[in-house]
């Protein structure tokens, strides 16, 4: 499975990324919403893990933009992390 992790806290991103790699997944990471948007539009991912509170473009705006553009990477039911984040 190919997964994109969009998380601005480096230690959190590394922890998630390492765990996913150990589980056998291919993982890319972005440190802000704009870089996450770029990767999500340029590559095909099976899942996105997106922090809600990101610099340059917040997680909700990232998912909404991907969905409104018809991008298949923003499928139904993304999971959000961060302050006040809820699974949607």
Describe this entry's structure for a reader.
The two termini are 21 Å apart. The protein has three helices and four strands. The chain is an alpha/beta fold. It is 38% helix and 20% strand. Strand 3, helix 3 and strand 4 form a beta-alpha-beta unit.
Strands, helices and their partners?
Elements: E1 2-6, H1 10-22, E2 26-30, H2 33-42, E3 47-51, H3 59-68, E4 79-81
Parallel strand pairs: 1-2, 1-3, 3-4
Helix pairs in contact: 2-3
Number of strands: 4
Shape: globular
Coarse structural class: alpha/beta
Let me know the largest β-sheet: 4 strands, parallel
The Rg value, from CA coordinates, equals: 12 Å
What number is the mean pLDDT? 88
Query: Can you give the helix content as a percent range?
Result: 25-40%
Give the H and E element order.
EHEHEHE
Low-confidence stretches: none
- Termini separation comes to 21 Å
In DSSP terms, counting alpha (H) and pi (I) runs of 4 or more, how many helices?
A: 3
| Proportion of strand residues | 15-25%
What distinguishing features does this structure have?
single chain, 88 residues, alpha/beta, four-stranded parallel sheet, 38% helix
Compact overview of the structure:
This protein is of the alpha/beta class. It is built from three helices and four strands.
